[in-house]
Amino acid sequence: MKNLPAITMGLVAVSRDCFPIDLSRRRRKEVAAECVKQGIDVVEIDTIIEHENDVVRVLQEIRDRNINALALYLGNFGPEGPTTLLAQRFGGPVMLAAAAEDSGKDLFGGRGDAYCGLLSASYNAGLRRLKIHLPQYPVGTPSEVAGMIREFFPVARVWVGLRNLKVFSFGPRPFDFLTCHAPIQPLFDLGVEVVENSELDMYDLFLSAKGDPRIKAIAADMARELGKGNTYPDLMEPLAQFELSLLDFMEKNLGASRYAVFANKCWPAFEKYFGFTPCFINGRLAAHGIPISCESDIYGALSEYCVSCATMLPPAILDVNNTVPYDMIEEAKGQLRDYAPHDLWMGFHCGNTSSSCMAASVMKYQVIMHRLMEPGKEPHITRGTLEGRIKPGAVTIFRLQSTSDAHLRAYVAEGEILDIDPKSFGSIGVFAIREMGRFYRHVLLEKRFPHHTAVGFTHAGGVDDIGVNLPRGTFYPTEHPFA
User: Fold this and answer.
1) Residue 475 falls within a domain, yes or no?
2) Are 149 and 170 in the same domain?
C-alpha cells in the first residue's frame, strides 16, 4: 500500500537532574531491547534530556535520523519543561510513557518516581496546548512500555497521514445526499488539503488517457484479479483507462502533499458519459491505500484513509444500510451466538469493496442505477460493480465528520461480519455490533452522522466529541434509564 506513511519511531528518555541519569539510560535500553524482542522498530536517541540545551541536541538527532514519531519515556521523574518543549518543537505525533519501579529491593537509589513525574509532564503539556498520546495505562515495565509503543504506531500513521493528505473531489456534492455537504474548514484545521474539481475535469482526464500504451497491462491485471468473475471482458480496457487517468492526475497534482484520496460523484451523469460504473476501480485503488469515496463524500474518504492508516489494510465505504429480517435471523440461529436482533444490520454499497475483502465476488451491474437509467433493457452503462458477500471476521466502523457549525465529531465501534448469506445484491455483509440498536439511536442519529461509514477489516477501535457503543447498563446522556 504505497499511499500510507512509513513511521520511523524515536525513543527518547528524559531525566530530572536531581535523579540518577543512569537510571533513565538503563531503563531506556531495556525498553529498546524489549522492542527488538517483540519485533518493534525503534531508533534509540543517544541524548537524554535533562535541560533545555539537550532539546536542541535531540532535535538534531531526530532530523539526522529522519524520525517522524516520538515515544518520550520518563525513566525517572523527568524535567517537565524540557520534555514538553521537545514535543512542541518536534511538531509530530508524540507519546508519553513512564517507567514502573523495578523491585522492592531497591527503592532508595533505584526509585525513579516516574509515576509522579508523568503528572507534571501532562500538566505542562496542557500549558503548551499540546495533544499528546497517552496509552490506556501509561506506566509500565520495559515489556509493557514496548507494547505501548507498538500500539502507538497506528496512531502515528494516522497523524502523519492526515497532516500530509490531499483530498481530490470530482463533482458537486449531490442534492440527494445532503449528508455529504459538510463544512471543510475542520479539514484545513487538521492540516488536510482539499481540491474540488468538476465532473467535466474528470471526463477530460478520462478522454485524454485514451490509447495510452499502459492501459492493456492494467486491463490484464484486472482480468487476473477477477478470474472467473470477469463477466464483462469488454469493460476491462475502459475501466483501466479510468484507473490510469486518476492515478496520473494524483501524481501530477500532489504538490506539497505526500498522500491523496478521492471523493468522486459517481452517478447519475457519470454512467451516461463514461459508459460504466466506477465501483470496481474504487475498490482496486483502496487496495493500494488510495480510497475513493462515493457520492463526493469528502469526510467519507478521509475516514477511510484513517482506517487504512490504522489497520494497514484496504478500507471500504459502506452504507449503514438495512435491518436483518427476523426470518433470516431465525434461519441463522447457529451463527448468531448471543447477538440480539438489534445488534445486527447489513453494510452495503453498490460494488466498491476491494476483492481481497470479499468472500466471493463477480463483476455485475448496479441494480438501483439500472432501474433509473436502463429500465427494461439489458445492462450496459450500469455495468462495473464488484458484488458478493464481504468476508466474515473482525470489523471496525469509523466516521470522522464535521457538524453543520464546523465542529469535528467521530464515532468508532468494533464488531464482526457474520458468516451469514445476506441474500441481496452489491458488496454486502451481515454486521454484528454489541448494542448496535442503542448506538444507532444515541450516537448515529442523535449526533446526526451520515449514512456512510468507513469499514476496517480488523479491530482498530481501541476531536472533541467521540461516540462508542456502550455496554448494557451504561447509558448515553440522552438515553432514558427506565425505558
Assistant:
1) no
2) no
Supply φ then ψ for residue 333, to 5 degrees. Answer: -50, -40
> 169 and 143 in one domain?
no
C-alpha–C-alpha distance, residues 429 and 450, integer Å: 19
- State which H helix or E strand residue 166 sits in: strand 165-170
pLDDT in tens, 145-167: 999 999 999 999 999 999 999 99
DSSP class of residue 339?
-
Residue 390 is given by DSSP the state B
Rounded Cα–Cα distance for residues 452 and 407 (Å): 18
Dist CA 155 CA 9 (whole Å): 12
Q: Which amino acid is at 376?
A: G
The last residue of one of the domains, among 121, 137, 162, is 162
Write out pLDDT tens, residues 271-291: 999 999 999 999 999 999 999
Q: What is the CATH number of the domain that holds 232?
A: 3.20.14
119 and 222 together in one domain:
no
How does the average pLDDT of the chain come out, rounded? 92
Handedness of CA 137, 143, 147, 152 (dihedral sign): positive
